[in-house]
Amino acid sequence: MRRITVLIAEDEKEIAELIALHLQKEGYDYIIAGDGKAALQAVQMHQIDLAILDIMMPELNGYDVTRLIREKHNMPIIFLSAKTSDLDKISGLVMGADDYMTKPFNPMELIARVNAQLRRYKHLNHSAKEGKKVIEAGGLLIDPDQRTVSLYGQTIELTPKEFDILYLLASYPKKVFSAENIFQQVWGEAYYDGSNTVMVHIRTLRKKLGEEKAKNKLIKTVWGVGYSFNG
Fold first, then answer.
1. Contact by Cβ (8 Å): 217, 197
2. With contact defined as beta carbons under 8 Å apart, do 149 and 85 qualify?
3. Is the pLDDT of residue 65 over 90?
4. Which domain holds residue 154?
5. pLDDT band per the 50, 70, 90 thresholds, residue 194
6. DSSP one-letter code for 3
């Protein structure tokens, strides 16, 4: 049976080796990349199950690496960065990361998050193999097996989290989901107070779907409650 391989993209050698040590104790294989370009090469040459990325790396930063990875791959990505503002965290999540941890960090917490993301990814892949239904509504076509979305024949490029939010809402038309419920189902972890991560993802999703100009919006805000799919 193939062992899980984690990419560690980190230019500080001591931090990379610390993460590697804890991953090894957990039974995972790992590959260390000291810059963004080496991280991309690792993804191209090896079967990576999860990536831990620093943001401020030589050659290519973590944002650029994530954008390029997301063009072809859906594996979980965790940002591990010294950038600590809420804006930095939200930017990372919107770019396509699945989680965001700040430095200094607790290695055991990082491993717990790695395990949680891998469990969630395995569950999503298993669900897809069992045959989730293709959804068509109002010119929108959502294919869960291919993880593609098109609107009136035009392909809409979504991040993995944007896709998961849209598919969740579209699977239950008219049902109202609170931000807390969306976060728990899509991120697979407890909702934290004050988080506007869901709101930011919904805003970006609406923009990509051209909702600003649409009269009959597909994603409806139910003020004070949450969001529903109006298809």
1. no
2. no
3. yes
4. 131-229
5. very low
6. P
Task: Give kind and range of the element (H or E) at residue 136.
Answer: strand 135-137
What is the domain-level CATH number for residue 151? 1.10.10.10
Q: Which residue has the tokens 């990576």?
A: 48
Which of 94, 128, 162 is the last residue before a domain boundary? Answer: 128
Encoded tokens for 218: 């597909």
The 10 Å Cβ neighbour count of residue 193 is 5
Q: Which long-range contacts (CB under 8 A, 24 or more apart) does 206-213 make?
A: 208/156, 208/157, 208/158, 208/162, 209/140, 209/151, 209/156, 210/151
Per-residue pLDDT tens for 93-108?
Answer: 888 888 899 999 999 9
Q: Write out pLDDT tens, residues 70-89.
A: 888 888 999 998 888 888 88
> Which one, of 135, 154, 153, 155, lies nearest residue 144 by Cα?
135
Do residue 26 and residue 119 come from a single domain? yes
Give all strands of the β-sheet with 140-143 in edge-to-edge order: 135-137, 140-143, 148-151, 154-156
Boundary residue ending a domain (93, 128, 163): 128
Residues 99 and 164 in one domain: no
Same domain? For 104 and 82 the reply is yes
The reply to whether 27 and 119 lie within a common domain is yes
Domain count, the chain: 2
CA distance 110 to 19: 8
Largest CA distance in the chain: 55
